[in-house]
TrEMBL record:
Family to which this protein belongs: Belongs to the TRAFAC class OBG-HflX-like GTPase superfamily. OBG GTPase family. NOG subfamily.
Primary location group: nucleus
Any one GO BP annotation for this protein: ribosome biogenesis
Composition-biased stretches (Basic and acidic residues): 615-628
Chain's role: Involved in the biogenesis of the 60S ribosomal subunit.
Subcellular location: Nucleus, Nucleolus
Gene3D superfamilies: 1.20.120.1190, P-loop containing nucleotide triphosphate hydrolases
Lineage: Eukaryota, Metazoa, Chordata, Tunicata, Appendicularia
Entry's Gene Ontology molecular function annotations: GTP binding
Cellular component terms (Gene Ontology): nucleolus
Name this polypeptide is given: Nucleolar GTP-binding protein 1
């Protein structure tokens, strides 16, 4: 709606029960849930106080939102104010909002009282009881608003479906008895598709349609029919029409069915017009004598003709004989009504202060000739001579001319235009500066000679066949590679075989790291290298060949060969695993650190971790949903069972 009312965007009003459920559930979800009686009492109090405050805040916010979103009857256009008054009962509406406001204050008061009481709570149990009482009282207050909330929701739904009538726009308002052809007319004038039926009270509420006239936008409003009786006896349906007639500054089109097909005598229709005429004060009024296709004016009974002739004498009202079926007179009537309204609106605007203000600000310039003298254009006498001189002057050869002349060979040289004291300096090199240093200062003056020498050397090498050797070595290379492949394969096979031999049956190999302590002990005893991995009993560990062999080799001991015995050429450890362990790098916390600084690094690591550990200690607020969809939050409506689990 362009005029500032947005009745369509009011938030849904939940029924009391759902309102309470969702608010309590929110408290449950958003506040800590674990407290212990051994904790300091201040913490216990804070825990429950938070729950009370949080619930109050939520109730408060939701109620406050209702109060701000539902329009206040005093603040909106009188048309809407009255229409809402008629449709929803002004008193009921105001009372409902008033009670919501009271409920809001009561909830605030409850929270305040219990917050005070909670300060004296001396045990978890008492604090909990106080919290329960506070929440319970708040819920009771909301529960009492059940009827109001339901009513407001109905109002909200109805409001959102009200036609978007702009009370200030250019409007044609159709009025008359039921069944005279108002809806037929709006369907003719606009694209509104209002229901047309041959019985009374087809239209039961206001309808709006839009049309263009004189490049302006117009709204046409169809109203329910009005019966001829006293104001007090009118029903809600009729009252809507009366409200529109009373408050909208529109051109009124009053329709009279002269064929009496609608079931109402002409006399009654004219009587109604006279009765509601005060509502038309200061508005352009057109009367349509409708359905002339059924009964033309001439075929009316003499009494009726006379009555209408009398009626025609009414001052300030224009009459048109029309038919919605043959469309006779419809456009004349519409144009006249619109024109009249336009004139009236312009006059009203000019009367207002706003128009004055605009005229004061706008100045419309109206040029006037200063005298009657004829002033033809003048060409100075020496003009041809000046032109000749200009032509005779030698032409300047521009850079563009040169470019066109030279075509591809052209090079833009901006230096030639430089105006220097010594003209030859124009071609000087300009020092190139990079990071505050002159680049030429860093150029090796002999770089070119050095490069030449290098190139000469390269050439020499190429000539002497230095680079040709590569191809010949290829065959040798391949042999070595093949051999390496065979060796690698053999090694792999042997490794696998050994593993098969040595695998303890039914017992997992003990990972080495678990034996740290024992290992060091063994090392202290000088047995470090003899730990038999994967076996439990270290005392029974066998001496392997390699380490001994190595030691002896260190001492140049000839007996080394004898220890292995089986092979004369290769000295090999009996444990392949062991023999390859030294290939693994140092421990992760030692790699990249100097050995003497390992301790220090470890200390630093622990220190850095300390704060993190302290901060991430799990507390009561670390609420985790082990169950991602806790039943009580997702299981929808509850049955008749207890609700005390909150
Ligand atoms: N012959 C004829 N019938 C018409 C004319 N205008 C309306 N009607 C008929 O009159 C009947 C009532 O027309 P509506 O347009 O529904 O009348 P209404 O004033 O909107 O009636 P309510 O909505 O009940 O107040 C319908 O059957 C129309 O076809 C007309 O100019 N000539
Ligand atoms: Mg109608």
């Amino acid at each position: 709606m362009s005029f500032g009312y947005n009745f369509k965007k009011i938030t849904v009003v939940q029924p009391a029960k759902e309102f309470i459920d969702s608010t309590l559930s929110k408290t449950q979800r958003k506040t800590p849930t674990v407290i212990h009686k051994h904790l300091p009492i201040s913490r216990i109090r804070g825990f429950y106080l938070r729950k009370v405050k949080y619930t109050q805040q939520n109730f408060h916010d939701r109620l406050e939102m209702m109060l701000t979103e539902f329009p206040r009857l005093e603040d909106i256009h009188p048309f809407y104010s009255d229409l809402m008054g008629v449709l929803y009962d002004r008193d009921h509406y105001k009372l409902a909002l008033g009670q919501i406001s009271t409920a809001k204050h009561l909830i605030d008061a409850v929270a305040r009282d219990y917050a005070r009481l909670l300060k004296f709570g001396d045990s978890l149990y008492r604090c909990k009881l106080l919290k329960t009482a506070a929440l319970g009282r708040m819920c009771t207050i909301v529960k009492r608003q059940k009827a109001n909330l339901e009513y407001l929701e109905e109002v909200r739904q109805h409001l959102s479906r009200l036609p978007s009538i702009d009370p200030t726009a250019r409007t044609l308002l159709l009025a008359g008895f039921p069944n005279v052809g108002k809806s037929s007319l709006i369907n003719l004038l606009t694209r509104a598709d209002v229901e047309v039926q041959p019985y009374a009270f087809t239209t039961k509420s206001l309808y709006i349609g839009h049309m263009d006239y004189k490049y302006l936008k117009w709204q046409v409003i169809d109203t329910p029919g009005i019966l001829d009786h006293e104001l007090e006896e009118r029903n809600t349906i009729e009252w809507q029409s009366v409200t529109a007639l009373a408050h909208l500054k529109a051109a009124i089109v009053y329709i009279v069915d002269i064929s009496e097909q609608c079931g109402t005598p002409i006399e009654t229709q004219i009587a109604l017009f006279k009765k509601i005429k005060p509502l038309f004060a200061n508005k352009p009024v057109c009367v349509m004598l409708n359905k002339i296709d059924i009964t033309p004016f001439e075929q009316l009974t003499p009494e009726n003709q006379e009555m209408i002739n009398d009626f025609l004498k009414t001052e300030g009202v224009k009459f048109y004989k029309t038919s919605n079926v043959s469309k006779e007179g419809i456009m004349d009537m519409r144009n006249a009504a619109c024109d009249e309204l336009l004139v009236q609106r312009v006059e009203a605007k000019l009367r207002g202060r706003q128009a004055d203000n605009i005229l004061n600000r706008v100045y419309v310039a109206q040029p006037k000739s200063r005298d009657e003298v004829d002033r033809p254009s003048v060409i100075p006498g020496n003009a041809p001579q000046l032109r000749e001189e200009a032509d005779a002057r030698p032409k300047i050869r521009t850079e563009r001319d040169i470019e066109l002349e030279l075509d591809d060979e052209y090079m833009l040289d901006l230096r030639k235009t430089w105006d220097l004291k010594n003209a030859e300096e124009a071609a000087d090199a300009i020092p190139e500066i990079w990071e505050g240093k002159n680049i030429t200062d860093f150029v090796d003056p002999d770089i070119m000679t050095k490069l030449a020498a290098l190139e000469a050397e390269e050439e020499e090498r190429a000539k002497s066949g230095f680079y040709d050797l590569g191809g010949e070595m290829d065959s040798d290379d391949e042999e070595i590679r093949d051999l390496a492949k065979v060796i690698r394969r053999k090694r792999k096979i042997r490794k696998l075989e050994e593993r098969v031999d040595r695998a303890p049956i039914g017992r997992a190999a003990l990972p080495r790291k678990n034996d740290k302590q024992l290992e060091t002990n063994m090392q202290d005893l000088g047995l470090g290298e003899h730990i038999q991995r994967g076996r439990g009993n270290y005392k029974e560990s066998i001496h392997r060949g390699r380490s001994v062999a190595r030691k002896r080799m260190k001492h140049n001991d000839g007996d080394a060969m004898e220890v292995d015995g089986d092979s004369g050429s290769v000295t090999r450890s009996k444990s392949r695993n062991r023999s390859q362990s030294h290939v693994r790098g140092p421990a992760r916390n030692q790699s990249g650190v100097r050995p003497e600084e390992v301790g220090k690094a470890e200390k630093l690591r622990k220190k850095a971790q300390k704060n993190i550990n302290q901060d991430s200690r799990r507390g009561e607020a670390d609420r985790r949903f082990l169950d991602k969809k806790p039943k009580h939050l997702f299981s929808g409506k509850r049955g008749n069972g207890t609700t005390d689990r909150r």
